[in-house]
Specification:
The protein is of the alpha+beta class and 567 residues long. Helix content is 27%, strand content 29%. A hairpin with a 2-residue loop joins strand 18 and strand 19. The longest helix has 21 residues. It binds one RNA strand of 77 nucleotides through strand 21, helix 14 and helix 15.
Length: 567
RNA sequence: CGGGACGUGGCGCAGCUUGGUAGCGCGCAUCGUUCGGGACGAUGAGGUCGACGGUUCAAAUCCGUCCGUCCCGACCA
């Protein structure tokens, strides 16, 4: 491709308000343009990279036995009603009515549709199966952000495995795990795999692949010592023990005028330090009120709560709901004597005595609380958020908590979809059994952006060779010079004949402009051809990643470049 | 969904307080001089000032409504 004929609209100014480097660079270097919130056009450079990312994924999934499908983007609502997800995922679903008035959903994912196709499986002899497609997904995210990292329309490779039993699922799951590791490696990213919450997906076990990044929206707790890694949505850590005073204590109400927070009570005369208070939260879990108790200095992790009590929707109760239930405002709440709603207490409160908590009367607290004696705990749970530096549950070393981009997510679904959608086969004994499923997702454009987050410098993008839009850029220093044009075209033709993807920068620009643009768009290898070099029979080869240049005899340029690319 | 900000040539912005019919930088076109790390000069093209409504002799500017985009938070496979 000759640059003078290519559409590569590079910009000198950063786009306004771009907070993620990858977004800034992809826009400036002419890869993408925004059409509306969370919806992007791929320009030629972007589409070349996107295609390469998809091909890498395709290769790796094919390599573990995947069969490629293409399922539709429009789904009849009824199918989603059957699994209940038209309810549970309602807030992110894009939908419309066709001209007949039928409800159509633009697929946010494809479990239901693959499961529908799979009802044609009839025998255990047909299993295992591994099906996938690479298709556009629509998710009406409340807040798209960070360019390609969080969008409303995107491409995803999602695969689905079908097995006769758990053992088969485990095998397919492990194969996907390895395939994903290879994919991320080829995309130039180091990932940490973490235990995750499966959220609205149903099923039980899931693993997320996380790329550490300041613009990531998830948080990972990771122990460098033993390798423990979990999304903070499921992570645990060791609780620093607190010594309670010896002896039996009676419940004792006392006035605490104007005390409304844990911190207030800490400094109040006769109060208690945060770790000797019981924090009482009122939550609405799938429509029902419940109390959630934590140690005063601990923070609730909502997803952990949802997982513990198997709730789909959780929200803090509103002020009026709280007063109606407990008779006091937030700030004076306690669980002592409460019997009419479930009480979920965090494990860190177990065995604690002489604690202080609200008395369910405004401006009154109660001390001397023995948690197990005085509170009717329905269920002990682990719902505490993990913080950086706390001891690892596995080995005791301090864990680090850092933000990360979720690059891929794999799930063991079990029979969550097979049951309602009737995916059943006859087993060896002629018995009808539900098929055991897994699902495995990886977002194409998000991974493009994540790769840029991981591979850039102050000059621009530094693509790994496998996904670079072009392998080589030939920068002609004087395109108007006949010899330069002839020599650079010769090199270009020779490389192209060898299957190398080359961009010939024949634009009539000053060299500085062309060098800067080449670096900005991130082409891995640059060949500089100009009259000065031709006179002494050489061209210059520069590696983008290191910036290192070497002068090579014109006759050896093609071989030298191919060596570089192969390395 | 709550809070905040913004919307003016392709891109980045000023002008709005105090109404008088639009300007700067970059980019773009032509010509010339340049040319191994973002050149310079001359000439030129390009704008329903987000939309609709109102006030006014007159609206980018004042008022109202709506739409859009971004940021913080909530939410989120």
């Amino acid at each position: 491709m000759r640059w003078s004929q290519a559409f590569i609209p590079t910009l000198r100014d950063d786009p306004a308000d771009a907070e993620a480097v990858s977004h800034r660079l992809l826009v400036r270097a002419g890869y993408i343009r925004q059409l509306m919130a969370g919806v992007y056009s791929m320009l030629p450079l972007g589409q070349r990279v996107r295609t390469k990312v998809m091909n890498i994924i395709r290769e790796e999934i094919d390599a573990i036995g995947g069969q490629e499908f293409l399922l539709p983007q429009m789904h009849p609502r009824e199918i989603w009603d059957r699994t209940g997800r038209s309810e549970t995922m309602a807030d992110i679903m894009m939908s419309f009515q066709d001209n007949k008035g039928a409800d159509i959903i633009l697929g946010p994912t494809h479990e239901e549709i693959f499961a529908t196709v799979s009802t044609e499986l009839t025998s255990y002899k047909q299993l295992p199966q591994l099906w996938y497609h690479i298709q556009t997904k629509f998710r009406d995210e409340a807040r798209p952000k960070s360019g390609l990292l969080r969008v409303r329309e995107f491409t995803m490779k999602d695969s689905y495995s079908f097995d006769i039993d758990e053992a088969g699922l485990d095998l397919q799951f492990d194969r996907h795990y390895d395939a994903y590791v290879r994919i991320f490696e080829r995309l130039g990213m180091s990932v940490v795999s973490v235990r995750a919450s499966s959220g609205a997906m149903g099923g039980k076990e899931s693993v997320e692949f996380m790329v550490r990044s300041d613009v990531g929206e998830d948080e990972v707790a990771h122990c460098a010592e033993c390798g423990y890694a979990a999304n903070v949505e499921t992570a645990s850590s060791v609780v620093a023990p607190v010594e309670d005073p010896d002896g039996e204590f009676e419940l004792e109400r006392f006035d605490t005028p104007a005390v409304r927070t844990i911190a207030d009570l800490e400094v109040f005369e006769g109060g208690a330090s945060a770790d000797r208070q019981v924090k009482t939260l009122v939550y609405v879990l799938d429509g029902d009120l419940a109390l959630v108790l934590l140690r005063g200095d601990h923070v609730l992790q909502e997803q952990k709560l949802k997982d513990e009590v198997r709730a789909i929707v959780a929200r803090p109760a509103q002020a009026d709901e709280i007063v109606k239930l407990l008779g006091a405002d937030a700030g004076s709440l306690g669980a002592v004597g409460v019997t009419d709603v479930p009480i979920y207490a965090d494990a860190a409160l177990k065995g604690r005595t002489s604690m202080t908590t609200g008395a369910n009367t405004n401006d009154v607290h109660v001390r001397g609380v023995d948690v197990e004696r005085d509170i009717g705990v329905t269920q002990w749970v682990d719902v505490r958020r993990v913080f950086d530096g706390e001891p690892c549950v596995e080995c005791g070393a301090p864990v680090s908590v850092f933000p990360a981009i979720e690059a891929g997510h794999i799930f063991k679904l079990g029979t969550f979809y097979a049951e309602p959608l009737g995916v059943k086969v006859l087993d060896k004994d002629g018995k009808m059994v539900p098929v055991v499923m897994g699902s495995y997702g990886i977002g194409v454009e998000r991974n493009m952006a994540a790769s840029v987050e991981a591979n850039h410098d102050d000059k621009g993008i530094v693509w790994p060779i496998e996904i670079a839009p072009f392998h080589v850029v030939i920068t002609t220093v004087r395109p108007d010079d006949e010899e330069t044009e002839r020599v650079s075209t010769e090199i270009y033709d020779a490389l192209v004949a060898d299957g190398v993807e080359v961009l010939l920068d024949d634009r009539h620009e000053r060299p500085g402009v062309k060098f800067n643009d080449a670096e900005l768009i991130g082409v891995p290898v640059r060949i500089t051809v100009g009259p000065r070099g031709i006179q002494s029979g050489i061209a210059e080869i520069t590696e983008r990643s290191t910036g290192v240049s070497s002068e090579v005899a014109l006759a050896d340029v093609v071989a030298a470049v191919k060596d570089l690319l192969a390395a």
